[in-house]
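Model: Ready when you are.
Researcher: Fold this.
Model:
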Amino acid sequence: MVSDDQTLRGSPADWVAVPQPRSAGDALDKPPAYHALHPNTSVNFGLDRVTIVGVSLGGGLAIRAAAGEPRVARVIADDVLTDFLACNLRQFPTAAGTAVRALLGLRAGRFLDALLRRRMQHDLLADWAVAQGEHVLGVRTPHEYLASLTRYVTADVSALVKADVLLLAGAEDHYVPFRQLGDQLNTLTAARSVTARVFTRAEQAQNHVQVGNIALSVRVMLDWLDGLDRRDLRGGRLNQDDG
């Protein structure tokens, strides 16, 4: 989802969807192409100051889309997600996760499939995650699914992001390891500004993508955008009539 932050409050077309791929597999199986902001976005909508909002895995894809893209002025990652493989391996015991990474490096596909399927028999979350991942990415085996996840990282492009960035994280996110918030903060070295917000149990927003109090996360996003508008108005970057 993108917006032209110059017309965020004043137009019925405030928020517009990035043209979608034909299937989820198309979107995820070709990350280098899909991570780029669609070239027709600027032409069709006349946008040159875009705000990107990425949700769940989109939190990582949004960072990638903003890297080296001058039309992206603001990025919201809800939640932050720097390493998709690490998110999936979090569902396994630490020793098993280490073994999985080693087997991926050795390309021991058959052995890895046997290990993962045994885990899936006793863990409903792991069973769902791998089966859903195979479906979305259009692969047939657990090891193919995990191997594909190694491409979904942000460390290699984060230093290219020059936009204002808002990073959101749940203090008790069951899926994204909390350390990924710090990882993302430390690699956004060229961003115009970086703001991080951690949601807690006291706010009933401690979960992944703030399930339990999504309204709070939306207010945080809008308040952040309003604050940037005020900053840019003071600096003369936005026309008063667009506020």
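Researcher: Now this one.
Model:
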Amino acid sequence: MELRIDIPDIESIPFIKMDEDKPILISNNSSGKTYRITNLKIPKEEGIYFLYDREYCLLYIGQSENLLSRISTHRGKDDFFYVKFFITNFTKRVRIAVEQLLIDKYKPKNQLFTTQNVRAYT
């Protein structure tokens, strides 16, 4: 039985700038439009996230049952400036598989895990 999963194109997901108190959506890099939305919060839902540096270079791709909690653990440790995410309703096993497909496709700069060393823990 084949499982089909729709994964959004990460280029279509807007960037969220991380500041001291709360994230602010500042631009959609693909369209060049700039937005300012205050009180935007990263949800406490499960999903897949992408961390970027100041030059919009992809640093890291991760998955979590709680995006807000997981992304906040990166603050102070990793030099990321922007974040993108999408909400999922996948099982943990499927989220990990999707995360690995995205890592293999986009090859983030600071990614520690590859498909080979993650397969052992799934």
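Researcher: Key takeaway?
Model: Helices lie at 67-74, 92-106, 115-119.
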